[in-house]
Design goal:
Blueprint lengths: L1 H11 L4 H32 L6 E10 L4 E9 L6 E8 L5 E9 L6 E9 L6 E9 L1
Antiparallel strand pairs: 1-2, 2-5, 3-4, 3-6
Length: 136
């Protein structure tokens, strides 16, 4: 007699064998889907790592408001033999761009170089910085 009572209570509160089996199947499907997405991401990230990387770091700037320009100095890390281009910006006190310049940097045998470039400004500047660099 207790078995039918237990079955009725299980059915009443949604704890039947059929529901447990369905929940287990859904859990396995979700686990397989998660594993597939994880493997796809690892493969994609691994293949993307083959590209050469470019890193630029600001090292200093000199503001010449009398001459309306900013001299920006930075280090460029790029694989030897690769040509690059960089964007340099001059900003005022409100962080408004008051001058910018795109420069082409020829290939070199060195991986790490220190470069300096002058950017003309439309108004008085407060700072100059290297905005971005990319392979060309």
């Amino acid at each position: 007699m207790p078995a039918p009572e237990a079955d009725r209570l299980a059915a009443r509160y949604g704890r039947t064998r059929k529901r447990r089996t369905r929940d287990l199947v859904m859990l396995v499907i979700a686990g397989v889907a998660f594993a597939a997405v994880l493997v796809a991401w690892v493969v994609w990230a691994g293949l993307d790592g083959q590209q050469a990387s470019v890193q630029a770091t600001d090292t200093g700037h000199v503001v010449n408001n009398d001459e309306r320009n900013v001299e920006v100095t930075w280090t460029l890390s790029v694989p030897a033999g690769e040509t690059t281009a960089c964007t340099i910006k001059a900003l005022d006190d409100d962080f408004t761009v008051v001058g910018w310049k795109v420069i082409e940097i020829p290939a070199s045998d060195l991986n790490l170089r220190s470069l300096t470039e002058t950017v003309r400004t439309a108004r008085d500047a407060a700072t100059g910085l290297i905005s971005s660099c990319w392979l060309t």
